[in-house]
Design brief:
Elements (H helix, E strand, L loop, with lengths): L4 E5 L4 H12 L3 E6 L17 E5 L14 E4 L6 H6 L1 H22 L2 E7 L26 H21 L3 E6 L2 E2 L10 H10 L4 E4 L5 E3 L1 E2 H13 L6 E3 L4 E3 H12 L5 E4 L14 H7 L7 H16 L2
Parallel strand pairs: 1-2, 1-4, 2-3, 4-5, 5-6, 6-11, 7-10, 8-13
Antiparallel strand pairs: 9-12
Length: about 325
Amino acid sequence: MKAVRIVITGGAGFIGSHLVRRWLNEKNEIIVVDNFITGRPENLPAAGNGRLTVMRYDCCNFLYIDGHVDYVAHFASPASPVDYMRHPIETLLVNSLGTWRTLGLARAKGAKYILASTSEVYGDPLVSPQSEYYWGNVNPVGVRSVYDEAKRFAEALVMAYHRQHGLSTRIARIFNTYGPGMRPDDGRVIPTFICQALRGEPLTVHGDGTQTRSFCYIDDLVDGIEKLMMADVHEPINLGNPNEVRIIDLANLIISLVGSKSKMVFKPLPEDDPKQRRPDITKAKQLLGWEPKVPLEEGLKWTVDYFKRLLSL
């Protein structure tokens, strides 16, 4: 990708910060807009890089950026159940008002736009794997709806701007992603299991552990996002790893990789927790030439090493 000027909201978050580092390495100029509700300043490169500007700002407000902009990447939103249930109204607003504000910026600048959507738009799916043609099974008033429905609205708004204003847009439906840079208190299953195993605590498994997820390593996801940005594809595209794993098997694998003597404790499933989550990435393969490459065990080893350093273990 040739050097460009990119505005990214949520650039201090897990995925956003990895994108920022990748884009800086590619000699791009980056403007991060983040209110740091869930993002962390330490995720970003040290100050002094002349191609990085960090704005502590809520993108739900009017967003003004001086000069030209080539891309607007909207990645601002609490993304784990712990975070969006702690900040339900902020989650709804950043995916509605924040999407509208950032679309307005892209339109004013003649910039291309990419939305970080989510596999949560499929809800608790009745089909597996989930393709982009599946409309989902979402409880519109459940506890997870503040994220699920907010992202579904964001996708609708992006497509409306594309159809009505001719804006060049992309929608990335991101499935479970993991890797260095996640918070220990993130609440998602991989950092939770790793930190519990490192501390010798029991791993908390919800339900009987037979529910499934698929996990994409962060570097693979960043590759997919870049390919989508450069493609002329406006419909939603699934980005994730299609290899499905049971949660109980994930727990056993992490215990083995850590060398922990941790056991498991079983708790009830959270409300509206999906039983299956597996992407159909046929469109990503065909239209982007993308598929993930990092095996789960290898990515987990790198992630365990990161949390060992973070926890000073």
